[in-house]
Amino acid sequence: MSFGPNPWQQTNWDARAAGNFIGGGAGSGLVVATVVFGADGGLRITLLLLALALIGGGLTCVWAEIGRPWRALNVFANPNTSWMTREALVAPVLLGSTALLMLLGIAWIAALAALAALAFLYCQARILRAARGIPAWREPMTLPLIIASGLSEGMALYAAGAALWGRASTAACLALALLLGLRVAAGAVWRQRLAAALRGQALRALAQFKWPALAAGALPLALVLAALLLQPPASWLTALQVLAGVLAAAGGAAFKFVLITRAAFNQGFALPHLPVRGARRRGAGS
């Protein structure tokens, strides 16, 4: 049964749609982290190239999902009402300013790229929040969860890249720990609220978030805290920072994939007053 009073899983958005949230969230978060930590030289170029690849790859996934791809131009038609349109309008600014920052490294371009990245990430979160028919997306905590996920994934990629570049630091670990803590807290509240609101298959789908959520938040957070509290030798700090970064980024991607493709159950609908065949309506004929 594809529709009715019981929740059913949406089929309009598949793995390609998930790819946009995965790449766009991590890529925009990586732009912010690169700007905030003032990466320079080859490290800045490498990280921003990765960010451009992630964001561009995510947008390409959406374009490929459309049966008639040139209809994608219609997304620019509704800036007053559509968060997809706003995301599409921000995207060229984000891609252009990030490319310029990669080449020039000028302060005002860095500020523009970071602001565009934050705006892009916010638009993505609002796209999900606006899907009123899907409880797992419309839940108010989805907004801070998606934002925290994108920022923590970007910071995780920055931490791993900087460590591999020989620039492992306590400051990067501390920032990653803070963002992962926010993500874990937002995810816990989000799941608690959904558990009280969902039923049937939609409720059972929540169980699929257990391992992605653990990989995206709790496990890398434990590794980062170990690096901060134990003060290991430089080689161990580098290894812990890389491992935590890779785990957090991969776990965040898995979480978003499950959110878009596995737990996106419609709420179904209710018919509080069902007609009874052969029964006279109250007041009929009087």
Describe the structure.
With 286 residues, this protein is mostly helical. The protein has one domain (15-261): Formate dehydrogenase/DMSO reductase fold (Up-down Bundle), CATH 1.20.1630. It is 71% helix and 0% strand. The protein has helices spanning 15-36, 41-65, 83-104, 107-129, 135-138, 142-164, 170-197, 200-205, 210-230, 234-261. It is globular.
Strand-residue proportion: under 5%
Rough shape?
Answer: globular
Could you say what the CATH topology is called?
Formate dehydrogenase/DMSO reductase fold
| Average pLDDT taken over every residue | 84
Specify the number of helices: 10
Counting helices, strands and paired strands, the structural category is: mainly alpha
- How far the N terminus sits from the C terminus, by CA atoms, comes to 41 Å
Tally of individual domains = 1
- CATH level 1 class label: Mainly Alpha
Order of helices and strands: HHHHHHHHHH
- The radius of gyration over CA amounts to 22 Å
Which secondary structure elements does this structure contain, and how are they paired or packed?
Elements: H1 15-36, H2 41-65, H3 83-104, H4 107-129, H5 135-138, H6 142-164, H7 170-197, H8 200-205, H9 210-230, H10 234-261
Helix pairs in contact: 1-2, 1-4, 1-6, 1-10, 2-3, 3-4, 4-6, 6-7, 6-10, 7-9, 9-10
List keywords for this structure.
286 residues, mainly alpha, Formate dehydrogenase/DMSO reductase fold
